[in-house]
Amino acid sequence: MDGDGRLDLLVTNFNAQGTFLHLNQGAMSFTDRGAQLGLSMSLFKVSSFGARFLDYDSDRDPDLFVASGHPFAPVAKVWPDVRYAEPPFLFENEGGRFRDVARERGEALQPPRVGRGVAVADYDNDGDPDVLLLTVGEPPRLLRNDGGNRGGWLGLHLVGTRSGTDAIGARVALTAGGRTQVRARVGGASYLTSSDPRLLFGLGTLGRADEVEVRWPSGHVERLGPVDGGRYVRITEGRGVGR
User: Fold this and answer.
1) From the CA atom positions of the chain, what is the Rg in Å?
2) 20: Cβ–Cβ under 8 A, 6 or more apart, which residues?
3) What is the tens place of the pLDDT at every residue in 34-67?
4) What is the dihedral angle through the alpha carbons of 57, 135, 18, 98, rounded to the nearest 10 degrees?
5) Rounded alpha-carbon distances, angstroms, from residue 129 to 144, 155, 158, 218
6) How far apart are CA 128 and CA 149, in angstroms?
7) N or C terminus of the chain: which is more exposed, having fewer CB within 10 Å?
8) Number of CB atoms found within 10 A of residue 174's CB
9) Which of 167, 158, 8, 134 is nearest to 65 (CA)?
10) DSSP run (H or E) holding 241
């Protein structure tokens, strides 16, 4: 989350317990920074379930989408200030701190829902991440991202050969303009969901990546570049970039 190359950990919780953002300090040590970075108070009264980091505006900073909704339907009878259904949260990363901008980003993010799962995918292949919100007692909500691709972007589809074909466990470091972003190819994340297996990177004002480093589960390390943005490319282990 903070660009230091180490993977961090977000933990959502029951209401009145807060949401924790554990930053990886290295040497198997984590420190919670959720409160300092603007997450804990915003999410304190709600029960949060699915959550996914995504660069929704392609500015190279990881933003955060969180689904919320209490597990107990008549919760207001016990805690009058707690609701069963809550609007989702979209936290924009503003220089390392998060601000909820859901009310500024369209009517689809306004209605209270009993949120559970969050899956992220560029379903229309236009270069920005869209969100599938799963709720209780309602059809899934497909939230299309309009305009998030105004900045540069690059999508990567990893295919293993010595590693598993789906490349789960691979780690990618993309460097552009002197700044490095790290993504991991995971099999599942969030609550009862699995997202787009492709890794989508925002490039901001830049049009290409200077270098893409892939550390495959097999132990093989591959360095490629420069790679032009504005497209999805396939990287096959040991064979480089292909169509």
Assistant:
1) 18
2) 10, 11, 13, 32, 34, 40
3) 989 998 788 888 999 999 999 999 999 999 999 9
4) 10
5) 8, 10, 18, 29
6) 5
7) C
8) 25
9) 134
10) strand 240-242
